[in-house]
Amino acid sequence: MLECHSIQCEAIGIAKRIDSVASHKHSTDASLDTTLLLEHELLIWAIRFSCRFGAQKEFVSALSQWPLKSLMYEPEETVDGPLPYSPGRIDAPAIFLICNQWAQAIHRISSKEVVDSMRHFAMTIL
After folding, report:
1. Backbone angles phi, psi at 78, to 5 degrees
2. Cα(100)–Cα(71) distance, rounded to whole angstroms?
């Protein structure tokens, strides 16, 4: 917790310095350096977010597959092919439903779109 608060305090200090630089009417080398540093940090943040989001998707996928190992589930065959897995249809416990819904929800989110938006924001800073 202390480490987290220290990082937040440092970020606030940097933000205050950026505010004071932004309040000057003319652009200086120091303000340009600060802006470039901010842009660089935003790009690093976007990359780290992308990695974290990918790890979250993998975790949720693995978590949603784990309950299947304890079920005697055999996909139903229809004329159109096998029915997709649905824990609600097979009266699975609530944890199965939650894991499945979480996995479906996180797979609908486009990490590329979010990361591209953050990169675009970083570029507009410059």
Report:
1. -125, 180
2. 14
pLDDT tens series, the chain, 126 aa = 777 677 877 877 777 776 665 565 555 777 788 878 888 888 888 788 888 888 888 998 888 887 777 766 666 676 777 666 666 566 677 887 888 888 889 888 887 887 787 778 777 766
Could you say which DSSP state residue 10 is in?
H
Residue pair 68/18 in contact by the 8 Å Cβ criterion: no
Dihedral over alpha carbons 115, 119, 121, 124 (to 10 degrees): -160
Q: Is the model's pTM score more than 0.70?
A: no
Is the separation of the CB atoms in 122 and 50 below 8 Å?
no
Alpha-carbon gap, residue 42 to 98, rounded angstroms? 34
The kind and range of the H/E element at 81 are strand 81-82
Instruction: Give the residue carrying structure tokens 């979010």.
Output: 114
CB 97 within 8 A of CB 88: yes
For residue 121, give the amino acid letter: F
